[in-house]
Amino acid sequence: MGRVIVVGSGIAGLVAALTASASHHVTLVTKSELAESNTRYAQGGIAAATSAADSSASHSLDTVKAGGGLNDSAAVDVLTTEGPELIQSLLDWGVKFDRDTPGTDIEGLARALEAAHSHPRVLHAGGDATGAAIEAALVRVARASQVRIREQLMLTDLIVEGGHVRGIRTLDAHGVHGEITADAVILATGGAGQLFAHTTNPAVATGDGVAAAIRAGVAVSDLEFYQFHPTTLALEGNFLLTEALRGEGALLLNAAGQRFMPAVHPDAELAPRDVVARTIAAEMAKQGGLAVHLDTSPIVHELGGGALGQDRLRLRFPTVAAECLAQGLDLASDLIPVTPAAHYWMGGIDTDLDGRTNLPGLFAVGECARTGVHGANRLASNSLLEGAVFGRRAALAIGSDFGPVRALAPLTADTGNGVPAARVAIQDLMWEHCSLTRTTEGLAEASARLASMSALSPAAALERDDVEVANLLILARATVAAASARTESVGAHYREPSFSHLMR
Prior knowledge:
The chain is α/β, with parallel strands linked by helices. The protein is about 35% helix and about 15% strand. α5 packs across α14 (about 465-485).
């Protein structure tokens, strides 16, 4: 049995750790508590073709269409064909998905429709608490398993010797540096929503795994493809308002109380996320920055109308309803102010279909990985499925082949050894110049300003904040460089015409 380190405790990391523990000694490292991850905050659900009326082929077509055609077809096929089997595994691990009929079989599961899906295939649990339900079930299984769990331990860098990963360097909550050695490392460290001033991601989402991989010379790509969720609560914290609300009939209204999506896309409120997000941003600009509103009255009407329909809506979306109430809003009777926010990274560490990177012994799965499955824009509710499918594949591949899979030029950057750059400065800069829309001039300004910033090296840092700033700086530089290099607009990457071109 080999020694395996899994870094990250979302669905990708937990599935990888549980699968690998059948054949290896596994240590799972997470920088916060075990249950804290992006998975925990996922509301809408997990997509898979599990009904007789649906098919993996249809799921694949929807995935490629949403991804702007830049998806890796083999990765998409893996995701959609292996998805139903992983749903069964989640059921076996104790995830209690909502059901239309009593029992334990897949056929009786409730299925919802979300944007850009051609069939209702999105499974949910606890109404709008799917991620929390999955996370809780997997955490219970992990704590009862042979997996060694190390909480409050942050990855700072990879240990590389002789062209092979040999473990990780860490920083604990007391500022003490350490090392853990292993035969293989699986990075499942999630995304980097904290790059931006407005994000649905928790505070831990600072791209630690991708930053460490870049410092180790590991290949990354598609960093310019960052998805912005169209509907987050336009109040402090940017609480996510699940796409399932629009899937069940909620409408978007401008300040004049008028719908604006039908004039932009034939699928209106259910258009791909990048289209809806940019349209909302444009509508907000027209009305002086005021938020647009989500109108749930069509759902209330469909659920029986009046007080009955309102109560049923609150029961269907209890997490969102509770957060709205805490913010002084009633999901069932008020117009809910919404705005886009950074949500999901399609790019990341280059991997093959088994999670292997071009550094032998290093694997990456979930949001930190770039399998190519999402192309330029992720289809709604494919993220949890990706984590489960590729987390398992990586765990099963350990020990079979540690050779490099691609000869890609690594993207490198130097974080320097100066005074830590302010996190808020990076976030504001990225939001201004590298968020929903980008320009040549704005990206050039961002590049220049980022080049002038410096941060402590992770090896010298004694505080977690210092490591996170170093990681955000290296990722911001890399993302701006990738966005500058891709001059065409596709998916979540949208380039506006340059000012110089307009002046000709």
